[in-house]
Amino acid sequence: MRVLAAMSGGVDSAVAAARAVEAGHDVTGVHLALSKNPQSFRSGARGCCSREDAHDARRAADVLGIDFYVWDLSDRFAADVVDDFVAEYAAGHTPNPCLRCNEKIKFSAVLDRAVALGFDAVCTGHYARLVRPDPDEPGRVELHRAVDAAKDQSYVLGVLRPDQLARAMFPLGDTVKTDVRAEAARRGLAVAEKPDSHDICFIPDGDTQGFLDARLGTRPGTIVDADGTVLGSHDGSHHYTVGQRRGLRLGVPADDGRPRYVLDISPVTNTVTVGPRESLHRQEIHADRPVWTTGARSGAWRGAVQVRAHGEPVPATVEIEDGRLRAVTDEPLTGVAPGQAVVCYDGTAVVASATIVPTR
């Protein structure tokens, strides 16, 4: 097959590309330029998409003996990921930009262009497994959790449709991270010990609040309890997420002395509501825009749901009501924030994902 290997400049994508070459595919490497003004170097494990990353990807491609290109997708990334991130915070939501990048960039913009250029699949270094359960249906693909639970990325891939999964390759799904680094060293890839990227790639300094302030400005408002009693003030409701405990700077301590958490964010009134941890507990989740990875299901079914990239799955009953996904969990979840994705599993297989909406 003709395979386009997305190479970020990190160890995972380099080894994934190497495995695609070793499997006998005709592989071409591509680095995605996602920033109009990339930094020259990364700050340790923060960010990605720097000039250093592009050079590292090119050097890995040279070692593998494959053609290599840089695709400028900065405009698309800014519109579909960065602007969406800012708009979601302005609406009082908590977005996941990595999930949005997979949906809009890597498996939409990149895959669409790859197919138009005659490639059969896009290969990435994501930790997830693709399973073809029926040999008589080679086009049917299931997305499963990776063997390395600590690195599993099936959650952020839960937005992919069956047709996209059919043209995806995740060669690292059956491997633990330590073995990937050892393999990179054996193959002579200089990125073998390169730190993993953390935090949000387009905020390399890690200052999310400063990033949002530069785009949304500051707007003083109040922090209140569930009864509306003013407890403090803030410079913008976009500084907060549901479930947040630190940085509230409340002037009035709780009567019982226990810490308080963000329960609700209202951008319209610019009010942040706080309260005790137990007020965060939710057993019923409603979510819009469901995406089915293996085809839609009807009626109620038993599975598990996960609401954070590295959260624990919780057993639940899931169904679709009037086009909206509804999940009732067996035990309460804490800090379920609008804008997050809820990803539904059947065992290790991803079934669907949807975007959580405000509920009471």
TrEMBL record:
<dbReference type="InterPro" id="IPR023382">
    <property type="entry name" value="MnmA-like_central_sf"/>
</dbReference>
<feature type="domain" description="tRNA-specific 2-thiouridylase MnmA-like central">
    <location>
        <begin position="210"/>
        <end position="275"/>
    </location>
</feature>
<dbReference type="InterPro" id="IPR046884">
    <property type="entry name" value="MnmA-like_central"/>
</dbReference>
<dbReference type="GO" id="GO:0005737">
    <property type="term" value="C:cytoplasm"/>
</dbReference>
<feature type="site" description="Interaction with tRNA">
    <location>
        <position position="340"/>
    </location>
</feature>
<keyword id="KW-0547">Nucleotide-binding</keyword>
<dbReference type="GO" id="GO:0005524">
    <property type="term" value="F:ATP binding"/>
</dbReference>
<dbReference type="InterPro" id="IPR004506">
    <property type="entry name" value="MnmA-like"/>
</dbReference>
<dbReference type="Pfam" id="PF03054">
    <property type="entry name" value="tRNA_Me_trans"/>
</dbReference>
<protein>
    <recommendedName>
        <fullName>tRNA-specific 2-thiouridylase MnmA</fullName>
        <ecNumber>2.8.1.13</ecNumber>
    </recommendedName>
</protein>
<dbReference type="InterPro" id="IPR014729">
    <property type="entry name" value="Rossmann-like_a/b/a_fold"/>
</dbReference>
<keyword id="KW-0808">Transferase</keyword>
<dbReference type="InterPro" id="IPR046885">
    <property type="entry name" value="MnmA-like_C"/>
</dbReference>
<dbReference type="GO" id="GO:0000049">
    <property type="term" value="F:tRNA binding"/>
</dbReference>
<comment type="function">
    <text>Catalyzes the 2-thiolation of uridine at the wobble position (U34) of tRNA, leading to the formation of s(2)U34.</text>
</comment>
<keyword id="KW-0819">tRNA processing</keyword>
<feature type="active site" description="Nucleophile">
    <location>
        <position position="101"/>
    </location>
</feature>
<keyword id="KW-0963">Cytoplasm</keyword>
<feature type="site" description="Interaction with tRNA">
    <location>
        <position position="126"/>
    </location>
</feature>
<keyword id="KW-0820">tRNA-binding</keyword>
<feature type="binding site">
    <location>
        <position position="32"/>
    </location>
    <ligand>
        <name>ATP</name>
    </ligand>
</feature>
<dbReference type="GO" id="GO:0002143">
    <property type="term" value="P:tRNA wobble position uridine thiolation"/>
</dbReference>
<feature type="domain" description="tRNA-specific 2-thiouridylase MnmA-like C-terminal">
    <location>
        <begin position="283"/>
        <end position="356"/>
    </location>
</feature>
<feature type="binding site">
    <location>
        <position position="125"/>
    </location>
    <ligand>
        <name>ATP</name>
    </ligand>
</feature>
<comment type="similarity">
    <text>Belongs to the MnmA/TRMU family.</text>
</comment>
<keyword id="KW-1015">Disulfide bond</keyword>
<keyword id="KW-0067">ATP-binding</keyword>
<dbReference type="Pfam" id="PF20258">
    <property type="entry name" value="tRNA_Me_trans_C"/>
</dbReference>
<dbReference type="GO" id="GO:0103016">
    <property type="term" value="F:tRNA-uridine 2-sulfurtransferase activity"/>
</dbReference>
<feature type="active site" description="Cysteine persulfide intermediate">
    <location>
        <position position="201"/>
    </location>
</feature>
<keyword id="KW-0694">RNA-binding</keyword>
<dbReference type="Pfam" id="PF20259">
    <property type="entry name" value="tRNA_Me_trans_M"/>
</dbReference>
<feature type="region of interest" description="Interaction with tRNA">
    <location>
        <begin position="151"/>
        <end position="153"/>
    </location>
</feature>
<feature type="binding site">
    <location>
        <begin position="6"/>
        <end position="13"/>
    </location>
    <ligand>
        <name>ATP</name>
    </ligand>
</feature>
